């Protein structure tokens, strides 16, 4: 793990290496793919990330393992060089954080925003699409929706876009009524 500010600096550096929006998407896909592979655990065995970050193995051995993995994954050459650079700096354990920061920055440059839509029951696709369209009109950005179910909401939906929460749940409305009756 590395501090968030350092992860942002590494992510920004990789982002600046992308010459086009398509290349930016490829970099994001490749670094996320590496994180998925490197973080996978088998029962009783360390993950690739654990091995690469371990002091129990010689640096040359760990570098050779990383190079083999990068070759087999056929990642973009720039991403592969970037991951080797991060390894050489002793920051390989921070790649998941770097990948997360990269995804956020790339989304911001592409005009995409993540939204979490929580409802009491699974919503039909057309309802989700209507909510998505309304959020896109309100924000002027492309919305990437993640749906979740929380039966405690009773009814309605709660949508979080960035740090803004739109709470139209029955649970909240009942709570507001209760508070107004008390006061």
- Tell me the number of structural domains: 2
The CATH homology group name of the largest domain? N-terminal domain of the delta subunit of the F1F0-ATP synthase
The tally of helices reads: 8
**What is the residue-mean pLDDT, rounded to a whole number?**
92
- Reading the helices and strands in chain order gives HHHHHHEHEEEH
Please state the oligomeric state of the protein chains shown. Answer: single chain
CATH topology of the largest domain: Peroxidase, domain 1
The tally of strands reads 4
Give the CA-CA distance, first to last residue.
Answer: 48 Å
Helix content: 55-70%
Low-confidence stretches: none
Q: For the report, how would you describe the main beta sheet?
A: 4 strands, mixed
Strand order of the main beta sheet, please?
2-1-3-4
Strand content: 5-15%
State the CATH architecture of the largest domain: Orthogonal Bundle
Gyration radius (Cα, Å) is 21 Å
**Structure classification:** alpha+beta
CATH domain class of the largest domain: Mainly Alpha
Outline: elongated
Describe this structure in words.
Helices cover 60% and strands 14% of the residues. It is of the alpha+beta class. It has two domains: 4-108, N-terminal domain of the delta subunit of the F1F0-ATP synthase (Peroxidase, domain 1, Orthogonal Bundle), CATH 1.10.520.20; 111-182. Strand 1 (112-119), helix 7 and strand 2 (142-149) form a beta-alpha-beta unit.
What's the SSE blueprint?
Blueprint: H1 4-17, H2 21-39, H3 48-53, H4 59-73, H5 77-88, H6 95-110, E1 112-119, H7 125-139, E2 142-149, E3 157-161, E4 164-167, H8 170-182
Parallel strand pairs: 1-2
Antiparallel strand pairs: 1-3, 3-4
Family: Belongs to the ATPase delta chain family.
Membrane topology: Peripheral membrane protein
Organism: Nannocystis exedens
């Amino acid at each position: 793990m590395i501090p968030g500010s350092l992860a942002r600096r590494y992510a920004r550096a990789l982002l600046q290496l992308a010459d086009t929006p398509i290349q930016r998407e490829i970099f994001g896909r490749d670094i996320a793919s590496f994180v998925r592979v490197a973080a996978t655990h088998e029962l009783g065995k360390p993950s690739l990330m654990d091995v690469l970050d371990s002091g129990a193995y010689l640096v040359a051995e760990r570098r050779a393992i990383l190079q083999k993995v990068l070759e087999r994954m056929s990642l973009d050459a720039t991403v592969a060089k970037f991951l080797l650079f991060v390894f050489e700096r002793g920051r390989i354990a921070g790649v998941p954080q770097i990948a997360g920061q990269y995804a956020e920055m790339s989304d911001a440059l592409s005009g995409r925003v993540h939204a979490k839509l929580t409802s009491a029951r699974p919503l039909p696709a057309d309802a989700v699409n209507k909510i998505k369209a309304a959020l896109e009109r309100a924000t002027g950005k492309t919305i990437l929706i993640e749906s979740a179910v929380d039966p405690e909401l009773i009814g309605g939906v709660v949508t979080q876009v960035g740090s803004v929460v739109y709470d139209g749940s029955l649970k909240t409305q009942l709570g507001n009524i209760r508070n107004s009756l008390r006061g």
